[in-house]
Amino acid sequence: MKDENKEGIGGMANPGRYGIERIAYWLMRLTGLGLLGYFIAHIYETSSILQGKMGWDEFLELTQTTEGHLFLTLVIGMCVFHTVNGIRIMLGHGGVGVGKPGRPDYPYTPASQNARHKIGIYTAIVLAAIAMMYGMAVMFGE
Amino acid sequence: MAHVSDLAEEKTTSVLSSSKIVTLRIARYNPNVDSTTKFAEYKVPVEKWTTVLDVILDVKKHFDHSIAVRYSCRQATCGSCGMIINGRPRLACFTKVSELDSDVITVQPMHNFPIIRDLAVKFERLFESHQKIKPYIIREDTEPALDTRDILQTPEELEEFIQFSNCIKCGLCNSACPTMATDSSFVGPQALAQAYRYVADSRDNGKNSRLKIIDDSHGIWRCHFAGSCSQVCPKGVDPAMGIQLLRGYMLGFS
Ligand code: SF4
Ligand code: FES
Fold this sequence. Notes:
The complex is a heterodimer. In chain A, α2 (19-46) packs across α4. Chain A has a single domain, classed as 3 helical TM bundles of succinate and fumarate reductases, CATH 1.20.1300.10. By secondary structure, chain A is mainly α. The radius of gyration of chain A is 20 Å and the shape is elongated. Chain A has helices spanning 8-13, 19-46, 52-61, 66-93, 115-140. Helix content of chain B is 28%, strand content 15%. Chain B has nine helices and eight strands. Chain B has helices spanning 13-16, 52-62, 124-132, 155-159, 172-176, 188-199, 207-214, 228-232, 239-250, and strands spanning 2-3, 20-28, 38-46, 82-85, 88-91, 104-108, 115-117, 120-121. In chain B, strands 1-3-2-6-4-5 form a six-stranded mixed beta sheet. In chain B, a hairpin with a 2-residue loop joins β7 and β8. In chain B, α3 (124-132) runs parallel beside α6 (188-199) and α6 (188-199) runs antiparallel to α7. Chain B starts with a strand and ends with a helix. Classes of the chains: A mainly alpha, B alpha/beta. Bound molecules: iron/sulfur cluster (SF4) and FE2/S2 (inorganic) cluster. The site of FE2/S2 (inorganic) cluster has 12 residues of chain B, from loops. Iron/sulfur cluster is lined by residues 167-173, 190, 193, 233, 235, 237, 239 of chain B.
C-alpha cells in the first residue's frame, strides 16, 4: 500500500473534504453494506420457520425489544436513503441532470455537481429521517 | 524549526515586505531509504499573492535543496505540480497561501500515485491509462486526402467536447477519486473523461474500439459518481460530467 500510495479505505470513506456528493457516496456504500447484512440476517430469521411456530415466535420476539426496534428503525432509514439516492445516481449514470458541456469560466464550478443533484441528496436524507421517525412512532407507540 | 528570514543575504524584496509568517510542513519520504513519512517544518514569510509553490521553492532555496518537487510552467498549464495541500489535491502553482485560510500549510504527495521522493510522484499509470483509451481522432481518411481539405465542424459540435480538451493531465482527479483509493487497476477519471472527449468529437470514427476498452470490470462501471474529481479539477474539465455522459451514451440514453 505504501509503494502504491493508495489512499485506501480510510481515504475512500473520508466524507469530509469533497462536499455533500462525497457524503452521499459514502452513505450509499454504507447503507448498501448495511442492507446486504440485513438481507442475510433476514434470510436467517425467516429460516427459523423450519423449527415450527415456536421457533418462529421466539425469533420474532427479538425484534420486539428496544434494541430490535432501533435496529429496524435503522433498516428503514437505510432502505429509504438507498432507494431515493439510488434513483438519483441511476439518472446521473445515464447522463441525466449532469449539465451540458460548454466553455467553463474561472472559478470553474463543475456543472455536474449542480443544485438538482444536491437537492436529490438532501431529499434522500430528509425522507430517510421522516421514515425513521414514522417507524419509531409505530414501533414504540405500540 | 528553521526561518527563511534568518538568512539575511538571501532575502528578496518580497520577503522584506512580507506581512505574514506561515508554517510549511513538507512530507519527506524516500521509498528506498525510509520506512515512514516524516514532516519537516519551516517558517516562511508570505504575501497575499504568494503561491504554495513559491513557498516550497523558497524553502528549497534557503534550507534544504534536497526537497523533491516537480514543477515547470508555474501557471497551471503543464500539470506537473499537483500535490495534497491541506488535505485536498491542488496545483501548488495555482493555489495562493492566502486562499487556504490557515497559518499552517501541509503539503504531501498526491494520493493514488506511487511516490518517487517527497512530493514527486510517478505518472506512468496515468499516462498508460490515457494512452489506452486512444486519445486521438480515429478515421480512415485524412484531411489532405479529402476534396474539402478540412474536416468541418459546426460550433455546436465543437462545444460537445471542447471543455474536456482543457485537461492538462495533472492527475488531481485521480488523486481525489474514491475508487482509485482502493483499486489500482481502475482506468480513472482522467482517462475516462478523455475517452468521452474523443467519443463526442464528430470527426472521430473510432467509438467502438475505444468503448471496448472502457467497458471493462475496472473500466467505466467502477465510477460511482462521487464527483470529487470534478471538485478538484483546476481546469474546469468536469470529468464526472464526461464520465456520466459517456456512460449514458453506452447505455443508449443519448
Ligand atoms: S481532468 Fe482536470 S484534474 Fe484531471 S488530469 Fe485533467 S486537468 Fe487534471
Ligand atoms: S507548475 Fe505547471 S501546472 Fe503548476
